[in-house]
Each structure stands twice: as C-alpha cells, then as structure tokens.
Write a structure and sequence with these properties.
By secondary structure, the protein is mainly α. It has 12 helices and 10 strands. It is 30% helix and 6% strand. The chain is globular.
C-alpha cells in the first residue's frame, strides 16, 4: 500500500497527471510588490547568485567528490545516548518545521534526474536548474498545503476522518486517549483495489500523511479551521484568520524557538539579503534544499506519543519508535486491516509542548542524524537508500 517511500521523490509526471485528473489546484496568488504581481509556482532562484556563478565556490565535478560525499554522509550518524543529544526545544517543533516546509516548497522534477547514489553523478547546470527544477507550492505561508489539492470541505467546514476502533481488536487492544472524539484522522478514500490511491488522504499535500505526527498536525489545522467556523465565520473568513494566526506563529513562535530571537527581531526590522519587492518572487534554493534541512537533525528515535505508545515501561505500553510512526499512514506506510488511523494512535499534544513535554525534546541542532533515520526502512523492511 505504501506509495512513496520516505525520502522518495514525487516526479513531474505524477504532478502533471494529478493536474489532468483534477487532483491538484495550484492557483496563482497575488504577491504584493512582486514583479508582475503574481507568484510563479514553478520558480526557484538563488539567494546569492554571484556565489553560485563562480566555479571557485563549487566542489570539483567527478567521481572522487561523489565518493567523498558518501563517506561524509556515513559520519553523520549520531550514536550518542538520547539524553545527551537533547535540545531545549519541544519535539512538536520538529514536525511543525516539516509542516512549514511542505507548505512553502514542493519540488517535483528531481525524481527523474540522476540519483545521488550514482558514482558518475554530475551536478545540474544553472540552465538546467532554471528550466527543470520547479516549486509547485506558494512560498508565502498561505496554507495552500491545507486548502488546495485533494482537500475536501462541506460548505464552510473542512472534511475530517473517523478513526478506526481498536478496543475489541485482539492485535491492537490499546485504548483511545481520553477526551478524543471519533473525528481524529484525516479524511480518506475508502478501500480501493489500487495501491496508488487506496485509503489516500484527501488533503492539500500528500506528504502530510507521511508519518503519524505530521498527519495529526495537519488534522490540527483542519480542526482549527472548523473551530473558527463554529464561532460564526464563513469559509473565506476562517481561512483568512487561520492564515494570519499561522503566519504570526511562524514568525513569533517557531522562528524564535529555532533561531536567536534577537536575530529574528533584527531581520524583521530590516532584511538586507532578500527583498521580494525588488525581485521576481521566488523560493531561494540555498534555503529550501540546504539551510532548512537542519530539521532532520531534530528527529528523535522514539517519542512519548500517548498513553499507549511511549517509553515509560509501564505494563501495557509500547515504544513509539520512529519506524512505527511511519506505519499508520497511507502515503508511506500500511494502514493494514484498518480503514483509517487506529484510535489508539491519536496523538496527545500535551506531551509534545511546554513543561509537559518532559522526555519529548527535539534533538539538538547539529550535523548528525539519529540512527533509525539514517537506516530507515519502509514498512516491508526494505532499507531506503535515496
């Protein structure tokens, strides 16, 4: 049932096919100050084009460079005890960072290009990058990952999905976390005899069904939209309000958790590097495929997920390992005999934020990957190498 392995690529052909079938709806949105007034969803650019244009700043092209990069990658595995690698940032921000990434970048062409594992790999030329590498997301924090694509709604409200019961299941007898209702999964298609769309999540970005935490975080945004509607707002008003809250959260909460708050304030007061009012609007490649990759170092090997899945050692509990978090999704995992997320896998967010986070701290920002991520396998036990 797994459609895309973790780390796998969504190709340009798959996106174009989805567009033909009406499964994507990437609308051009007005960008104040941008040349022409419209965002180019197919455009990446360089934040520092003069640096990239100088060959002296680039690695030499050849098999030795490829081999050395592979050896470097093998050194980037953190085998230290978990507590020694903790930061002071609650683990929820790891996956909020992933959600933000999915909301502003969606690169679809490199799946058809040379693979990193090829010994004779050559970097793309600037001309090829400009012609082939496309961003199909708006980079303006507008929640198109929530509202576009396959996202379904009923009049003013976003569609939600029912969890699958487990209380009478002899294989998964664990209980639903207290206070959690039936509508605690993403909306999904039913069982279909087609692995490509079987129980597919009906959401704006399929990658937000990649692991259970990002899936439950996407659900939180759907629930937030509906809560705003409950207060008397229509769809457009609710979407605008949720976007505004999200944008405030990115700047004043997320950024100040992962960066020096003084640096954030200084940048807001006067950004001297990237001013979209002076250039065509684009997503900087140096940021999207280099700088923002730091989030992978924050991932833990296991989490205090809920009353059933944690590392407490309490009788009847099971470890919430990274591998298990990739199981109960349809995008990369196997929902198995369940039509949707099992009710015993509903997240308890109070374990991921603030003082209650306890054990659930993100790992520190460094150049190391937690070992399960470095050797991640799909749900059939096959190690993923791309």
């Amino acid at each position: 049932m797994a459609r895309i392995p973790h780390g796998g690529r969504i190709t340009l052909e798959k996106v174009e096919e989805a567009e033909k079938n009406g499964r994507l709806n990437m609308l051009a949105l007005s960008i104040p100050g941008g040349a022409g007034g419209l965002a180019d969803f197919n455009k990446f650019g360089y934040l520092f084009p003069d640096l990239q244009a100088n060959d002296d700043n680039l690695l030499p092209v050849g098999p030795d460079t490829v081999a050395n990069l592979k050896r470097l990658g093998q050194t980037m595995i953190d085998t230290s005890p978990a507590d020694e690698s903790n930061s002071t940032v609650p683990a929820a921000y790891t996956y909020l960072g992933q959600f933000i990434d999915h909301d502003i970048t969606f690169e679809v062409a490199s799946g058809d290009l040379a693979k990193l594992a090829e010994p004779d790999l050559e970097p793309l030329s600037s001309a090829d990058i400009e012609a082939k590498i496309r961003n199909t997301r708006s980079a303006k924090f507008d929640l198109d990952s929530v509202y576009e694509g396959l996202a379904e709604r009923d009049e003013e409200r976003m569609a939600l999905g029912f969890v699958s019961p487990t209380s009478n299941n002899t294989v998964f007898p664990l209980k639903r976390p207290p206070g959690k209702g039936d509508l605690n999964d993403l909306p999904r298609k039913g069982r279909i005899n087609n692995p490509a769309i079987d129980r597919e999540a009906l959401i704006g970005d399929p990658r937000n069904d990649e692991n259970t935490i990002i899936s439950q975080l996407h659900l939180a945004f759907l629930l937030s939209h509906n809560a705003i509607v409950t207060r008397g707002h229509d769809f457009e008003e609710a979407r605008t309000l949720l976007r505004q809250h999200y944008q405030w959260m990115v700047i004043h909460d997320f950024l100040k958790k992962i960066c020096d708050p003084a640096t954030v304030d200084d940048t807001l007061a006067g950004n001297s590097f990237y001013d979209p009012s002076d250039y065509d609007f684009f997503m900087p490649l140096e940021f999207s495929v280099a700088g923002y990759r730091f989030g992978h170092s924050m991932i833990r090997a296991d989490y205090d997920f809920n009353l059933n899945f944690n590392s407490s050692g309490t009788p009847g509990t099971t470890e919430a390992s990274l591998a298990r978090l990739f199981t109960f999704t349809a995008f990369v995992g196997q929902l198995g005999n369940f039509n949707s997320l099992p009710e015993n896998w509903i997240i308890e967010w109070e374990r991921f934020f603030g003082p209650a986070a306890g054990f659930n701290m993100a790992r520190r920002f460094d150049t190391k990957l937690v070992e399960p991520l470095a050797h991640l396998t799909d749900t059939f036990g096959t190690e993923l190498t791309d």
